Amino acid sequence: MNRRQMLRAALAPAVVLGVGTGCSEPQPAPGSVDVADPGSLAATPPSASPTSSLPAGPLTGAPVGTPAAATRQAVAVPMRVSPATTPAGLDAADLVYAEFAESDTLHLTAVFHSRDASKIGPVTEIRPVDIRSVSVLRPFVGYDGGPTGFLTQFESSDLDGVTPDDDSKVFSGDYTSTAALLKAAPKGGQPPTPALDHATDGDALAARDLAPATELTITVSGGPPMVWRYDQPKARWVGKVGTATVTAASVIVLTMEYRTLEVRKPSFRSLPSANVFGEGAVVAVSGPTSAKGRWRKPGLGMVCTLADTGGDLLHPQPGNAWVIYAPTTAKVTVK
Q1: What is the pLDDT of residues 132-170, one digit of tens each?
Q2: Which domains occur in the chain, in start order?
Q3: Which of 40, 129, 193, 308 might form a disulfide with 293, Cβ 3.0–4.6 angstroms?
């Protein structure tokens, strides 16, 4: 049974439930979106593209850059981006998770598997959102330390990683690369679990309530809106992060509660934190179309399932994807 069959078998019609506020792994309510065991999902890799002799990557559903990339471990890098930052490496990432952080910044978790990047950064501290987003993918993580409590969470997650204090050769200032991270990673790392159910054989994004889309805007209180526009000739969604232009095959917006974390060590500060465990509304754009539905992620070791308004899986187009964690107070519009 392939990944799509596993997920379809696990899905029941979605119902509107409140987004979870804790870090526990709640049992699904009757009729809610269910999630399959990621260990089963990883057993069958995506089929190869009919136009390429290279296999499809588990995180993109598109051909990998080299044959060796298909079976290697993913790497992940947290990045902090302000409106004045020029981030590096994002267009080589298979997945990018974006959290709205303090002072008009974004905290990004960039996951690399199918392609290499010679420069990634600026690398920043580890945060709970990084751990909760990527633990199921089993990447090797390059990060720049973090508050004591966050480091404890990382150590308890079974993820491996490296900081500049551990091995300065992996980093060049605030930057690193996929080659340096993979060289530093322990031997025996496994390729990631598929995170999305990519379209095949002309699948539509959703089975119902599909709508045309040319622009996606996420507006958060106190900060500039994040705007993505569809480039029809290139079949790509184009946005701006810091001063850099980035592109994606799909952009997926998950609405969820944010909490304020009071960090005390090594210094006191307050940080916004997206609660990625639970269930909530999803708005996705992929190709020239958009769809709405529900997302559900019960806990650390489970994939985040995306379903349309009738409970069927969403099928984003093969390629890289951005997953935006939007606060419940945000306004998400599609034109």
Answers
A1: 999 999 999 999 999 999 999 999 998 999 999 999 999
A2: 3-40+73-334 (3.50.90.10)
A3: 308
